[in-house]
Design a protein that fits this description.
Distance between the termini: 57 Å
Order of helices and strands: EHEHHEHHEHEHEHHEHEH
Number of helices: 11
Radius of gyration: 19 Å
Helix content: 25-40%
Oligomer: single chain
Shape: globular
Largest sheet: 4 strands, parallel
CATH class of the largest domain: Alpha Beta
Number of domains: 2
């Protein structure tokens, strides 16, 4: 007996949802969970591939990712069109250079939209008219300098700064969010328009609302801005509440 299927029920049809590729560091324990927390019920599909990241965190080790960017991107649904590729490393983007990151990704996925934590942060600052920030990072001193220099070049003034001075992604991921809430809420905010928390591995997404309430200023983070820019790039404009004012815009 031959079974002939003449039609497909609408609930089984491909709705042509936008496809997002996320490049996560091999050592990052946080970014996938943050993307899933916000995007799991939204009309888009996320496909993750990991890029080798060598500890400890140094500019030299971050630069090593450049040679793998094209091949890692190409392995996200090979031969398929991807709407957006999000590269999930703040310090890595600064070390390699935004333009070089974009160039390498576009070699594998032509015509896609490319975003990074620093690309998205600068867009978010412009959206919210933020020109002066307080900055919180987990990085060692040498990497902190690259972050500070980057914002200066982008005409973003850093009026206050604090760092955990850690060296490993595993250490970043295991910092108690309540500890981050406590110490970052003590940053001098008088001259700052907002607080920016740098690093995709820090578990801060779920404390952003609490921090904003304490500081009475916008609070942005690497993963939050990256998710915001990713969503807007595929046409999702609805507000997402619970993770800072930026995602409500």
């Amino acid at each position: 007996m031959t079974l002939s299927i003449k039609h497909i029920d609408s609930k089984f049809k491909n709705k042509n949802k936008p496809k997002v590729g996320l490049i996560a560091l091999s050592t990052d324990q946080t970014i996938e969970g943050d993307f899933n927390t916000i995007c799991k019920n939204l009309p888009l599909d996320i496909f993750v591939n990991r890029i080798h990241n060598q500890n400890p965190l140094t500019k030299e080790n971050l630069l090593k990712m450049e040679k793998d960017l094209e091949s890692v991107t190409n392995k996200i649904l090979p031969e398929e069109r991807i709407n957006t590729i999000a590269y999930g490393c703040t310090s890595g983007t600064i070390a390699i250079g935004e333009n070089k990151v974009k160039e390498k990704i576009l070699l594998a996925k032509k015509n896609c939209y490319v975003t990074t934590p620093v690309t998205s942060a600068i867009k978010a600052f412009k959206q919210m008219n933020i020109k002066n920030i307080a900055l919180f990072t987990p990085y060692p001193d040498a990497v902190n300098k690259t972050i500070l220099d980057y914002f200066i070049k982008k005409n973003i003034e850093v009026s206050s700064f604090a760092s955990l001075n850690l060296n490993l992604d595993s250490e970043f991921a295991n910092v108690d969010p309540n500890y981050i809430l406590d110490i970052s809420s003590k940053l001098e905010m008088k001259d700052a328009d907002a607080l920016f928390i740098s690093c995709t591995a820090l578990p801060v997404l779920n404390i952003l609302d609490k921090l904003e309430e304490k500081l009475q200023k916008p609070v942005l983070s690497s993963n939050q801005t990256l998710i915001w820019d990713t969503l807007r790039s595929v046409g999702y404009q609805s507000p997402v509440k619970g993770y800072g004012k930026l995602l409500e815009k």
